[in-house]
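Researcher: Go.
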Amino acid sequence: MSCSIDYIEYVCSQLSSVGEVRSRKMMGDYLIYIDEKPVIIACDNLCYVKKVPEIESLMVEAECGFPYPGAKEHYILDIDHKKEAMMVVKILRDVLPYPKQRKKK
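Model: Structure:
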């Protein structure tokens, strides 16, 4: 089951004060970018974030899961708790790299 557009709009609105937020549909699910960095994978109306040491203490009680078959395990971000979600997303925005530029042919 893919994400509903209502869910994606909700996630983006919850994070609007963190930075420039946009979403991109990817194979039925979505990537949510903050300041042009892919921070959230949204699948099945759940938000998945990469497991990095910088957010480990904030995500101690978070559930974990796999956003798609073959993916590494991610934390599931509770987007309904706006304050905590914003803290996690701000850290991820600062520590995750920008996507690599594709070479022009």
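Model: The first strand starts at residue 21 and ends at 26.
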